[in-house]
Amino acid sequence: MDWSQGGYGFYVWGAYLFALLAIGGEVIALTMRKKQILGQRKSAEEISKGRNNETTS
Amino acid sequence: MNLYKYASPVNFYPLAGKIIPWFAIPAAILFAVGLYVGFFVAPTDAQQGDVYRIMFIHVPAAWMGMFLYVLMAIYAGVGWAFNARLSSMMATSISITGASFTFLSLVTGAFWGKPTWGTWWVWDARMTSTLILLFLYVGFISLQASIDDPRRADRAGAVLALVGVINVPIIYYSVQWWNTLHQGATIRILNKPTIAPKMLAAMLIMLAACWLYSIAVVLVRLRYIILEREQNAARFAEVTA
Amino acid sequence: MLRWIVWRDLILAWRRRADVLSTLFFFVIVVSLFPLGIGPETQLLRSIAPGVVWVAALLASMLSLGRLFANDYQDGTLEQLLLTPQPLYFIVLGKVLAQWLVAEIPLVLIAPLLGVQFDLSKETLLVLFVSLLLGTPVLSLIGSIGAALTVGLRGSGVLISLLVLPLYIPVLIFGAGAVDASIMGLNPQPNLSLLGAVTVLSLIFAPWATSAALRISLE
Fold it and tell me: Which of A36, B150, C124, C157 could disulfide-pair with C120, CB 3.0 to 4.6 Å?
């Protein structure tokens, strides 16, 4: 394979770099969303556990 | 076997979880194979040199952008017509992936345009229509983002998506019209040379990879949407442990 | 029922004349901004005139759309209108007609005057007038869909633009295209016919979509 792509290397690799950013970015955004949801569930659990110890409402 | 139970988001959640690896892993493999064929097997083009290799990501991205919009409109419409929450959630999940692919197709198109036409952006019919498609996605996403009530957001999105999908042929035709008018008497280079089999193979493999990737990513996002919206559903805790 | 709705909205608009006039002035100012931004060269201005006037009309329409359902929503009238036995389609059609008469017709009437600023010929000014007359109903009709979807939402003004401007593009292309054809000495008929077709289609389908959107927004 011609790494310089016949002189057009900047354009070819530039385009594929953006593709990597778009696809990778989507996957990363999803993992961040998962972390956020898990974090929310943990704190919700802790709050409800804390409530179980209440003796007055 | 009763399949209708999977219409419930809570029941679909574990099923989606089992399905996802069957799409994610083949997607990764096909991306690798497609890129290999595209860069190591497909020959250099006689007219365009090596720049044409951008097509292997540009064309699949453009097609995904378009197909996903129609799919999104169908899911949204079904969700509205049958009052099916899961279907509407699918539409919401698809919208982001579709917008991402559409944006990618514009960027890769620009990277292809600069060396071939001389400018980063050309107002030709295809690029302009793709830009408008991106606007339609952005409209759908912002509308759903600004409505707090999830069911109102689902249904409003459905109306917008259906209006959009009906308008897409009209918009496409009007942009074609606009483009030919302003071309004047210049000869248009009809871009239809016969494509070499190895190039076509790479393109189709990449397209398949994009489809599999889309299905995987949409299902993952769908699961997160279910987690966010179905807190009060029966069996939610046991299914999402 | 239709006449009643139109008449009611006209009276209400008359009581808030300032809103209507400010939209008109927005249109005038925006059109006048372009020569200031681009330069006074007549040839150039003549060539950009169709696009400038049409885009300004689109933007001015956007401003007036927020008012279509907002006031009725706030005082509860909209809910009552949804409960009447008359088909919502005609109620919507009535409100859109009133909005067109109040917000769009002034634009149509003043546009030829603005066209003079761009040194357009008499024939072209006529085409400009006709194209706007044919096209502005579509702006109101499709705009009503966006207004109905965003009733009661925060930041609905900008959101309506985001939703509706992409859908306006065919109208813009055919409308400005007709005027452009006239400037170049070509026949504006094809563009005007296509514009008319879009208007007829919108007239039939848009009120139905708007009604559906209203029911969704208000339940």
Answer: C124
